[in-house]
Amino acid sequence: MNTRSVRRAALLGVAALVVIGGVAAFGRWLGAAERQEAAACQQSVHEAEGKLRTDRWDPPSDLPDLGNYPEIHWQAHSLGCPCSRAPGPTDFAYQGVVRLKSDDAARLTKQFEFVPFESLDPASLVNLSTPAEVWPELRPHLPSDARWLYSESYDEAGSSPRWRSAFLDLDHQTLLFMLNDH
Question: Could you give the CA distance from residue 16 to residue 102 in angstroms, rounded to a whole number?
């Protein structure tokens, strides 16, 4: 091999090392950036899930026939990882407590034939969330001596992209709802 060939081979070797080193550095930088982005996303999700919301529920079709209720408190929790890079939606669960006007609570009770929850056979309540499963941040908004009523026809009323479990306390004009994406 002549000197010129040796220099060319050396230069190509150095160039290859520079390219490989640059790609490796870029990969480390990109990985660090993705980890920072994921951590920021997780923090944002954690903060959003801890927030107790008081804005009106939208879309109203998820909670039919409540009337013009004076007060609502609700939360959303992700059922998966909304920060994942995997394609597809993330499902959410929602819970809330709605203070109804007394005439709306009475109308709901009759219209959807609410019955005492305690009178139901738990084995017949497949895929039903119960008032005992309410999230801690919502408990202060529930009546302390609630007498929950339940209606399967209310849970199935209207069209909604979410499964619904709802419980009504007529004495306190309070509706507890639990929704899950499906």
Answer: 78
For residue 180, the surrounding DSSP H or E stretch is strand 174-181
pLDDT band at 25 (very low <50, low <70, confident <90, very high): low
Q: How confident is the model over 38-95, as pLDDT tens digits?
A: 666 766 666 667 799 999 999 999 999 999 999 999 999 988 777 777 766 788 999 9
Q: How far apart are CA 56 and CA 98, in angstroms?
A: 10
Q: Which residues contact 8 (CB under 8 A, 6 or more apart)?
A: none
User: How far is the C-alpha of 15 from the C-alpha of 7, rounded, in Å?
Assistant: 12
Closest CA to 180 of 62, 97, 71, 87: 62
In the chain, domain spans: 1-50, 52-181
For residue 160, list its beta bridge partners. Answer: none
Is the Cβ–Cβ distance between 174 and 144 less than 8 Å?
Answer: no
H helices, E strands: number in the chain? 3, 6
DSSP state at residue 171: T
Please state the pTM of the whole predicted model.
0.75
**At residue 52, what is the residue type?**
L
Collapse the DSSP code of 58 into the 3-class scheme (helix H, G, I; strand E, B; otherwise coil) and give the result: coil
CA distance 164 to 178: 6
CA distance 94 to 176: 11
Residue 5 half-sphere exposure, CB side, CA atoms within 13 Å? 2
